[in-house]
Specification:
about 675 residues; alpha/beta; mini-chromosome maintenance (MCM) complex, chain A, domain 1; Rossmann fold; 5-stranded mixed barrel
Length: about 675
């Protein structure tokens, strides 16, 4: 099929607008101009109307769209003076999507559509489209269209005929035409990346009403013209070119897991697996099957993969449905192995280290770099890129200080707010966090509270729904672990008959998260309520707080996730008991002191409730000594405290904690005063 002439293309556009009722939309656009400057046309209608117009649009999009815009402009009266108007294409079918990694030189100049995550965006800035240049010799105003990124002056003055070197030209900004412009960087969707591959990226240019429409972390479908620009400088251009997409339209993708295609056979297998009454045990045993034991940890991680149901209240507040889990363990206990497995099997996941590989780290950052030509860019970190998925974070205790501050908001409100260099943005982090950390001094001291042994603030620790200690303690299970490891190394390549393959597991999770939204039955509610009240009543005996409302919310999320894992829309008493078993294990393991008393403040506070009286007593001693001498000497504090049953080591630790929490300060060495 030959290339259509410009007149034929214009005629086709004219007929198309009439046949599909776009003339009415064009007249409405004229009324709303300049607030609205784009006519959006359905791709499927073009496909249905004419294969010739469709081919011209695909092979020669820039000219074809320009001719369409000319036809639209002719429909407005001359006095309306419409200078900028866009023809945009929407609803590109899935079969025309192109993978970022498969874009080649043969696609240059074509209309292509890609899908991915927005990783970086620059600030929105004006770009000169048509410059009004006044000749300083005669005052004549010359208009010059700007075709490249370098400012182009008129070659000569149309008024006096003087060339560029013989006169000077002054840009008149008030008479020039500017458009908002923005660059963004799109990265392949995590679920499209096969194991071991680097995610591919491509830049896109957004102009006018498209600029400022997206933020990092957004999942978008971009239709645009593939263009090139040479590397190197203007004086020394390279023969190697960079490619970018000049965006014709940007559509936000609301539906998650769209790239995971489920066939009728897949759905049959998923429902068949769900009909097994032991489905949760089978799925749990599939998680990092090379690791021996850890049944309760694996079960909690399984429920995390399915997640609870987020709740949006009438007043606009949102209660998260995502489950956060922290693994704290000695080296060699399999933490990283669990994280790696989860990042491979979750339908959408990001695996990262607490240090972070870029300036954006875990949350987000405003940075200056080449991508934005020295301008400020907003870059998404791991949690933003994992929005609506799961973030597996190894060595979370070694995260950057700026992330440490932002993590509180990212975990509970599930947003990250950036305010820097005039950029104010709120990015979404609606993801579950599976994190691993090491004890400060290499190995656990089982006698000390967890908060003392990990480099994370108690306020951050309290945001995890469940925390599991994974100590390496020689004991009775050593023989079984050794046997299990040896068996793995002796295994043949033949698959186990009952084993669920990773692909089905991933599809099972995606199906459950998309279609199953369980509600708690009355039996489940009563079971959770009675457990919560029973635990709260322990306060009368121990004077410590064994459980808070945060753990009750975690119980609800785990109960919903248990029902989801069974593909049930109703969470029953067995689901509630499974959630209680997990939370009870977490509380007994992490929040119980040497005397066997449960105190949740061992995790959620800098000072456990059971030890708070000791701290108050030391403060009283300092207050008494200060009233007499104006300060309290360390030796005197220790002597007074020892008479009341304390050891010297206890007091030194308490003094350090009180300084850290700004109760006392040291005006000179060995002397303390209260901060009033």
């Amino acid at each position: 099929m030959g290339v259509m002439s410009p007149e034929n293309v214009k005629t086709m556009w004219e007929m198309f607008f009439v046949q599909y009722g776009y003339n009415v939309k064009i007249s409405l656009l004229g009324e709303k101009y300049p607030d609205e400057r784009s006519l959006i046309v359905d791709f499927n209608e073009i496909q249905e109307f004419s294969s010739e117009l469709l081919e011209s649009l695909t092979e020669n999009p820039e000219e074809t769209l320009k001719y369409g815009e000319e036809i639209i402009l002719k429909k407005f009266p001359e006095e309306q003076r419409i200078s900028v108007l866009h023809l945009r294409i929407k609803n590109i079918p899935d079969d025309r999507l192109r993978e970022i990694r498969k874009i080649r030189s043969k696609n240059i100049g074509e209309l292509i559509t890609i899908e991915g995550l927005v990783r970086q965006v620059t600030e929105v800035r004006p770009r000169l489209v048509t410059g009004a240049f006044q000749c300083t010799s005669c005052g004549h105003v010359n208009y010059k269209d700007q075709e490249t990124e370098i400012l182009e002056l008129p070659a000569f003055c149309e008024g006096c005929g003087k060339k560029r070197g013989e006169t000077r030209f002054k840009l008149l900004e008030d008479f020039s035409i500017f458009l908002d412009s923005q660059r963004i960087e799109i990265q392949e969707n995590p679920e499209d990346i096969r194991g071991g591959e680097q995610p591919q990226r491509i830049q896109a240019y957004l102009e006018d009403d498209l600029a400022g429409a997206v933020v990092p972390g957004d999942r978008v479908r971009i239709t645009g013209i593939l263009k090139t620009r040479p590397r190197g400088t203007r004086q020394n251009p390279s023969v190697v070119f960079d490619i970018y997409i000049y965006a014709v339209n940007v559509e936000a993708m609301k539906e998650e897991y769209k790239s995971i295609v489920l066939t009728d056979e897949d759905i049959y297998k998923i429902k068949e697996l769900a009909s097994d009454k032991n489905v949760i045990e089978r799925l749990r045993n599939k998680i990092a099957s090379t690791l021996f034991g850890l049944e309760i940890e694996k079960e909690a991680i399984l429920l995390q993969l399915f997640g609870g149901i987020p709740l949006k209240r009438r007043d606009g507040t949102r209660i998260r449905g995502d489950i956060h889990i922290l693994l704290v363990g000695d080296p060699g206990t399999g933490k990283s192995q669990l994280l790696k497995y989860v990042s491979n099997v979750a339908p959408k996941s990001i695996f990262t280290s607490g240090k972070g590989s870029t300036a954006a780290g875990l949350t987000a950052a405003a940075t200056k770099e080449e991508f934005g030509e020295g301008r400020w860019t907003l870059e998404a970190g791991a949690l933003v890129l994992a929005d609506n998925g799961i973030a597996a974070i190894d060595e979370i205790d070694k995260m950057d200080d700026k992330d440490r501050v932002a993590m509180h908001e990212a975990m509970e409100q599930q947003t990250v707010t950036i305010s820097k260099a005039g950029m104010n943005a709120t990015l979404m982090t609606r993801c579950s966090i599976l994190a691993a950390a090491n004890p400060k001094f290499g190995r656990f001291d089982l006698s000390k509270p967890l908060a003392e042994q990990i480099n994370l603030l108690p306020t951050l620790l309290s945001r995890f729904d469940a925390i599991f200690k994974m100590p390496d303690v020689p004991g009775n299970v050593d023989a079984k672990i050794a046997e299990h490891i040896l068996e793995i190394h002796m295994e043949t390549e033949e698959p186990v008959k009952d084993e669920i393959d990773d692909d089905l597991f991933k599809k099972y999770i995606a199906y459950a998260k998309k279609h199953i939204n369980p509600k708690l039955t009355d039996e489940a509610k009563n079971e959770l309520k009675s457990y919560y009240l029973k635990m709260r009543s322990l306060y009368t005996q121990t004077k410590t707080i064994p459980i808070t409302a945060r753990q009750l919310e975690a119980l609800i999320r785990l109960t919903q996730a248990s029902a989801r894992a069974r593909l049930s829309n109703y969470a029953g008493i067995d689901d509630a008991r499974r959630a209680i078993r997990i939370i009870q294990h977490f509380i007994e393991d992490v929040a119980t002191n040497a005397e066997g008393v449960i105190d949740i403040d061992r995790v959620a506070s800098t000072i456990p409730t059971g030890e708070r009286t000791k701290y108050e007593l030391v403060l009283d001693i300092i207050r008494e000594l200060q009233e007499v001498k104006g300060f309290a000497g360390e030796d005197e504090i220790i002597r007074e405290a020892e008479q009341r049953g304390f050891t010297s080591l206890d007091i030194q630790k308490i003094l350090k904690d009180l300084q850290r929490d700004n109760f006392i300060y040291m005006p000179s060495n060995g002397r303390f005063r209260l901060i009033e």
